[in-house]
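Researcher: We are triaging several targets before committing to wet-lab work. For this one, the compound of interest is potassium ion. I'm pasting the protein sequence and the ligand SMILES. What I need is the predicted three-dimensional arrangement of the protein with the ligand bound, expressed as structure tokens, so it can go straight into our comparison scripts without reformatting.
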Amino acid sequence: MHHATEISETESGLAMELLTAAQMRAAEEAAMSAGKVSGLQLMERAGRGSVDAALSHWPDLAEGPHHAVVLCGPGNNGGDGYVVARRLLDAGWRVEVFGLGDAAKASPDARRMRALWEAAGPVQDLREAGQGDRPDLLVDALFGTGLSRSIPQEAVTAWHAVRTRAGVTGQVRCLALDCVSGLDCDNGQMLVPEGADALSADLTVTYHAAKRGHFLKTPPSAALKVVDIGLEAHPASLTAMPRPGYLRLLDPGRVEARRWLEDILPVAPGHHKYDRGHTLVLGGGPGKGGAARMAARAALRIGAGLVTLGVPPAAVQENAARLDAIMLKPLRGAEGLAEMLEDGRLSAIVLGPGLGLGEETRQIVRTALGANRRSVLDADALSSFQDDPDALFATLHDQAVLTPHEGEFARLFPDLAHGKRDVSKVEAAALAAERAGATILLKGPDTVIASPAGAVSLNAALYERAAPWLGTAGAGDVLAGMIGGLLASGRIAPHLAAEAAAWLHVEAARSFGPGLIAEDLPEELPKLFREIGL
Ligand SMILES: NC(=O)C1=CN([C@@H]2O[C@H](COP(=O)(O)OP(=O)(O)OC[C@H]3O[C@@H](n4cnc5c(N)ncnc54)[C@H](O)[C@@H]3O)[C@@H](O)[C@H]2O)[C@@H](O)CC1
Ligand SMILES: Nc1ncnc2c1ncn2[C@@H]1O[C@H](COP(=O)(O)OP(=O)(O)O)[C@@H](O)[C@H]1O
Ligand SMILES: [K+]
């Protein structure tokens, strides 16, 4: 049985891996060379699965025969398109097919699928695609994972011409096979001719596993479904580190999330507060304490047994007026921190939010890292090293997590920064983690977590998990606190703590909904935990 799976509904208890185009080809080739399946069978399953997924996504299209236009490219993606065309015709639809490129150069599988279609209907010239009345469904089978450069202008023109065909039937639903044509499946860039409007889709149906490009940058498709075509999967538990070389997508269903978090969260019968750990959050001077207070609150809510806020003596009074369960200590610079860290029960440190830029912060960071504590470095703790990132890297260790947004990342890793790199965000974070010798969590709707040993994960607030209201002042401070709260128990690797915190951060935002401000995030956690069944 091959059926469409809406990935947000995964309840298999397993983490999903996002593939590169090369990894997808390798999975296909492994199955074919083992004699388990032929390329033609895979293409038939892909086409059939696409039709089933589209009709379940748009139930009104399943109610009766409609009208489709299918645009087929020169490769195997086009081959999938011919299968879709044939199956819709079998279901009684009116189907027009337009082809791009030299049919004789197509793969044997794609040629065979084209021939099967041609037994029933013609393949028309792509330049004619604008003629005719408006279809209910436009199928983009122009280019898939084999795209190596910008798609041709004639493909762009034809797609837009079909979308804007005259007619009274209303909306044209756009279905992309495997990916929106032009999408670089490895890095999420849209490769279209200069000045051309990129293609888009209402639904993308992809095969076997989602590809990296589906989740990086702003997706050109509103929805994504993954169809099983019978290739071997590599299930892995979220409580183990991700496989090096693969990109783990954090998207467990509710059942799996409960099992995962039961192992990750530091709460168990018989534990007392010191088993859960003690997180120290460092705060700034008078009037600068909000960010650290929110981080401290988040650390406590996510499960640290104790949280202490350390602030300069001048800021004690105002913080005392704002704190209850969180303890407060005056802290005199790096020397004061060193004294405080003589207490071995302080098991994790969060530093950066509201801390201030400059030499004093650099000294505090060096002291914290030198004391070999699990540490989260955010905001000013990162930006203070912008003139000499190597000085920071020299003191970092594998128990540290850095949580830069794109701007802070650019200050520490200018050569890997957005816009200056032809590497993807995934590669940039992985290279940065290797250079820093610490875990890097690079923020955004597509948050990438990378660790020095090669583990890379993606927490995507995209598609059904979109939470644009999370981009609000202080949300990052809360995330740093959440990671620091999870690190305190010492039970899990920094990478796994960063994963769980990032996932919960987005789930808390989704649970709260629009109108969210940063203070709401920690307060939403108890409700979220209850909903997950913890
Ligand atoms: N890998 C797999 O396991 C499976 C792949 N299938 C389909 O096969 C697709 C990949 O097929 P292909 O590797 O043939 O690649 P595509 O069909 O994505 O396109 C590659 C073809 O277009 C040409 N081309 C690439 N960039 C171009 C450009 N900018 N302008 C003009 N021509 C260009 C290439 O020379 C090649 O002929 C997948 O996306 C998927 O739709 C499915 O049939 C099912 C299984
Ligand atoms: N459009 C978005 N969708 C989902 N999450 C977002 C979006 N924009 C920002 N975020 C998240 O919000 C947080 C913002 O953090 P940051 O940039 O450090 O802000 P601040 O310094 O104000 O706390 C990050 O966790 C980031 O991933
Ligand atoms: K496509």
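Researcher: Any quick observations?
Model: The domain at 4-235 is CATH 3.40.50.10260 (Rossmann fold).
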